[in-house]
Amino acid sequence: MSRPYSPRPYPSREPLHRRNGKIRAREVRVLDEMKQPLGVMSLGDALRLAQNRGLDLIEIAPTAVPPVCRIIEYGKFQYEESKKKKESLARQPANTMKELQLTANIDENDFRTKLNHAIGFLSEDMKVRVKLRFRGRQRAHKEFGFQVVNRFVLEAATHGRADAPPKMAGDRDMHVIISPLPRDQRAKPARDPEAPKPVREPVVPPVTDVDSAS
């Protein structure tokens, strides 16, 4: 018995931005090359205006009523769009998730250092994956590892919230993912205790004319 035919999804051939004769609207709102409004006009008038300037008419907001078109050279428009996309990607964090490794017998200083790193990542809108690996006999007492990870999640709670309770991945590894809280719900980052304190200028008493008073 043959399988029912399932059409393969092909990408649409419709261009991202219609231009010139491909624009379908009867009436459009037109912007010039510098994005200054030229008003609403018929598609024919807009095409003639673009042609008289030796430029293209490009539809940039097809869902608006009426659609918004811009008069600009198509190559320049593509360059602007490509540059805008690159700048948008550059503003995003290179990694949206950072990973920190704990141990079941971690000392207090190391715990605090890892916690400060996690808070720093969460403050930059990054998720944090916290992993703990049990070694040797530690696998027989996993409750100590759970205590460490749960304490870590609790102390980071002013900046992030665990997506789910800590869980095992196999017999040796435990992990939990902490996502940043919304900015308006986060605690302000604590001041670095090793940072130099601001120097206050000494208060100088006002000078009095001793001679004239005597």
What's the level 1 CATH class of the largest domain? Alpha Beta
Which spans have pLDDT < 50 for at least 5 consecutive residues?
A: 192-196, 207-214
CATH topology of the largest domain: Translation Initiation Factor IF3
Q: What's the overall average pLDDT, rounded?
A: 83
Report the structural category.
Answer: alpha+beta
Strand/helix succession: EEHEEHEHEHEEEH
Number of helices: 5
Count of strand segments: 9
Distance between the termini: 121 Å
State the CATH superfamily name of the largest domain: Translation initiation factor 3 (IF-3), C-terminal domain
Helix content: 25-40%
- CATH hierarchy: architecture of the largest domain: 2-Layer Sandwich
Total number of distinct structural domains:
2
List the helices and strands and how they pair.
Elements: E1 27-31, E2 37-42, H1 43-52, E3 56-61, E4 68-72, H2 74-91, E5 97-102, H3 108-123, E6 127-133, H4 142-155, E7 160-162, E8 167-169, E9 173-180, H5 210-213
Parallel strand pairs: 1-4, 5-6
Antiparallel strand pairs: 1-2, 3-4, 6-9, 7-9, 8-9
Describe this structure in words.
With 214 residues, the chain is of the alpha+beta class. It has two domains: 20-82, Ubiquitin-like (UB roll) (Roll); 97-185, Translation Initiation Factor IF3 (2-Layer Sandwich), CATH 3.30.110. The chain is 29% helix and 23% strand. The longest helix has 18 residues, at 74-91. The protein starts with 26 loop residues before the first strand and ends with a helix.
